[in-house]
Amino acid sequence: MGGSRSRRVLGSRSYKNYSAQMLDTAVDLVNRKIISSLEASKQFLIPRRTIDNKVKKKHPKKPGAQQRLTAAEELDIIKVLTAAADFGSPVSRLELRLIVRTYLNKNNKGHLFKHNLPGKWWVKNFLNRHKEMLTERAVQNIKRVRASTNTDDFENYFENLRKSLDKIPAKNILNYDETNLSDNPGSTKCIFKRKVKYPERIMNTSKGNISIMFAATADGTLLPTYTVYKAEHLWTTWCENGPGKARYNRSKSGWFDSTVFQDWFNSVIIPWADKLDGPKLIIGDNLSSHLNIDIVSKCEERNIRFTFLPPNSTHISQPLDVAFFGPLKRKWRDILTQYKIHNPAEPQINKAHFPMLLKSLLEAIEINSKANICAGFKATGIVPFNPQTILRKIPDYEEQNNYTIDTALLDYLKANRTANPLQKLRNKKLNITPGKSISSQEVQLFMTKKKSKLSRETNRSNINEAQQTFLDLETNLDAEPVIDEPNSKTRPKVTILSEVRFSPYNCAYADLTKMLPQNLKKVDKSYNIFKSESKENLPVIQPEEEFLEYIDYENQMPSTSADNKRLILKKPESCNAKKKIKRDNSDDNSENSDSYSLRDTSEDECFIPSESESCEDFEEQNVQNTVKKCETLRIDSYVLVKFCGPKTNKYYVGKVLDIIDDSGMYVKFMRNRKEEFYWPHIDDISYTVKSDIEIILGIPHEGRRGTLRFDCIDFSKYNVQ
Predict the structure, then answer these.
(1) Within this chain, do residues 155 and 289 fall inside the same structural domain, yes or no?
(2) Known PANTHER family for this protein (predicted)?
């Protein structure tokens, strides 16, 4: 179905040369008998039979094909289209046809249209019938974070703005914003012969742009522009033949950083503020580079108030964005097109020509510049102060929330306006031969093999580590003599460890619930505690838990009381430094040199101390050895802290700022440069537990430029960051 749809046959009379208003006037005159139908036909050039039929109320329907949907149904469709557009999901012509088809299927009216789908002409006539309520517009895409702004954010903003605007004239209210002028004039419609598949225009363009800071007051005054080039040096020709009082600068990125912004503030804003009396108000976005301590102090000296716009809302709350930059960019594309035509050899904008182009741009918009600036302050509700101008643009505002459409559709539109990102998965590199492709099934097989290999290596390393730890512990206990007291039986000092083994999932199992004090039996030391056959009903000790078991020797039962406690079992740590239970060496005793296994021979055996042994001394000694690293820790101490990574451990040197309790503290960390440490520009302060402290360092030596050196330790053994 193509372009024109005229029903008029060549040579026939025109179908209708009068309007509905003329017909109503003629019928009214005939009904009041002021003129006859013949006279009305001659005066209004309307067929006499048409007037007579209207007087007699014949043929009340409109001529031609009748409407397929009723007026009420079309009104409901209009409400749906309006709500969808308000929530940021406007409907195209094709989507409108699909919506109508879905509605007809649900109401058993699929016979109204051929193939149960409204045609293109139905959509055209529908929009024509309701042109006072609906229109087609080119859309502007905005990010979801901008669409997620709600009424509460703007109500808080306008409440603070009301206080800031108190007794400030329009000439003292300023809005600033940074924009860029691109090197691409964009596309436009040109004339080609029919059926040209690729219409092209020869013109050099690039993705480059030049940043410019604009500032304007609420009374329509435009302050001097401030241009920033992307370069390391500034040249004379880049600053000549430009607008009056315009300023130029450069930066490595081509955008405004904190240094450039401060220079703009000192060279443009401060002279503007010094000429005015009374309080001044500056409105801008909340970029971190747009504010620092020096700017705040200068604002306080000159009675300047800073107000920041709500985040992700400058497209509706920034005066320059709303009404000034649009006409500016359209005029810039015209000027840039003429520049490209007259300078075809230039691959991009010559910076030496840019000041001249900028001057032409400001002169071209000067006529409407003041009106556009004032319109921007009005459209954003600043001058005159009117929050409703912005609040009514937000769908969840109470005045715009009276939608009479289905609640399920309304909930869907609200959910579609907010962000709902997909889950981000961890990416891994595939070692594929160059030039070779791979399928998704091969990727899954590769990941499965890699996981199984990593699991086997982890289990093997953990088992070896645990075996070595227990063997070291056994050696220390076997070689340890016991001091006998008078009239006491000699008993070997052995710490009983329950059966321990490792599951395929790298979790340690220990049966400590049935440990009861019994006589100690000698067992074969050659028995491997890692090959126990008992596998049922054993509790799992999670890797991050630290398990300590104490026994009350007075009641001969496991206890948690503070008296007569003794450390029985401690899980080897895999993340922090390994802590071994040590005892002080005493006099050698040949009777106590026998070796005993660390494995229980029964489920209810436990170690009973000798009468000559002091449990309190042994407990105090072991606990003291466990926290030996942290007993001299104090505020302002320098420490080496371990951070466990997925593959390797990293170490950082820091200074203790505050000790919270017995287990943690706040540490301010430094950075390493060839074993010389310095403080970063931004303080790196973190809460650290004492178990992560590897070494307490001594007093450092101060080097050049404030760096610190620690000569008492060799950092080459650690992966110090």
Answers:
(1) yes
(2) POGO TRANSPOSABLE ELEMENT WITH KRAB DOMAIN, TRANSPOSON
